UniProtKB/TrEMBL annotation:
Gene this protein is translated from: LOC115398152
Name of the protein described by the UniProt record: P2X purinoceptor 4-like
GO terms of molecular function: extracellularly ATP-gated monoatomic cation channel activity
Keyword Ion transport: yes
PANTHER family: P2X PURINOCEPTOR, P2X PURINOCEPTOR 7
Transmembrane segments: 32-48
GO BP terms in the entry: calcium ion transmembrane transport
Coiled-coil stretches: none
Organism placement in taxonomy: Eukaryota, Metazoa, Chordata, Craniata, Vertebrata
Source domain of life: Eukaryota
Keywords: Ion channel, Ion transport, Ligand-gated ion channel, Membrane, Transmembrane, Transmembrane helix, Transport
GO cellular component: endomembrane system; plasma membrane; postsynapse
């Protein structure tokens, strides 16, 4: 009982520091002088130096590398294996290129052949064709001759990769639908020169073993993204996007030229 009573008395006690007020002109003046100096220094830094407002433009660089292998059945060519050299084009600023669909024009060589009609522009005689003329939509340069395109139509002859690529609907589903499982490594480096501050999205502890096995879907720090996941996060369907095509790209050898999507 005595122990409990003493513990209760200890808990019910309240202590406060003792305050001593000294009447001294010298100590009072020293105190307020120090406060004034500190306040003055703070004001000078905020109004004149303004270190807290310094800024610097960021210097950054982004590089990408696409990886993946797919086997496709190319019309007229049979089964072919495509790797990053085949489906990935030259590096673009702030972007990367992946082929997803192919329209084949077999046996193309440089020569002269009838232009494919577009927008109803046909010819009747050589007078309708201007030698040396071309447009961004044409497949080549006109020779000045009006030749047969088929039994019913005549078009201006062009110097181009022949036979020219006829416009037609791309294959459905896309021939390179397997590109959905391709991956892209994105390296991002930023630097603020004025502050000597540098950051990378590939951290120092990320070795080759980690980068070969990690997936962004399960690891938020991984810099490797699956193309299908990127498209899905953008709210689109990879199956539908893969069918779309861009204007034809000509090659400098005698391989079948292709349209890329």
């Amino acid at each position: 009982f005595i122990i409990c009573f003493m513990a209760c008395c200890g808990l019910c006690q309240y202590e406060t520091n003792k305050l001593v007020r000294i009447q001294s002109v010298r100590l009072g003046s020293l105190k307020w002088s120090l406060n004034a100096v500190i306040l003055l220094v703070i004001c000078l830094m905020m109004l004149w130096n303004r270190k807290y407002q310094q800024f610097d433009l960021v210097v950054s660089s982004v590089t990408t590398k696409v990886k993946g292998v797919a086997q496709i059945q190319l019309p007229g060519e049979g089964q072919l294996v495509w790797d990053s050299v085949d489906y990935s084009g030259p590096a673009q600023k702030n972007s990367f290129f992946v082929m997803t669909n192919v329209i084949v024009t077999k046996g193309q060589t440089q020569g002269k052949c009838p232009e494919v009609p577009w927008n109803g522009r046909l010819c009747v005689s050589d007078k309708d064709c201007q030698k040396g003329a071309s447009t961004p939509q044409s497949n080549g340069v006109q020779t000045g001759s009006c030749v047969k395109f088929d039994l019913l139509k005549k078009t201006c002859e062009v110097s181009a990769w022949c036979p020219v690529e006829a416009t037609k609907a791309p294959p459905r589903p896309a021939l390179l639908a397997a590109a959905e499982n391709f991956t892209v490594l994105i390296k991002n480096n930023i630097r603020f020169p004025a502050f000597n501050f540098t950051r990378r999205n590939i951290l120092p502890w990320m070795n080759d073993s980690y980068l070969k096995s990690c997936q962004r879907k399960t690891d938020s720090l991984c810099p490797i993204f699956r193309l299908g996941d990127i498209v899905r996060e953008a709210g689109e369907s990879f199956t539908e996007m893969a069918v779309e095509v861009t204007p034809p790209t000509k090659t400098c050898d005698e391989r079948p030229s292709t349209n890329h999507g």
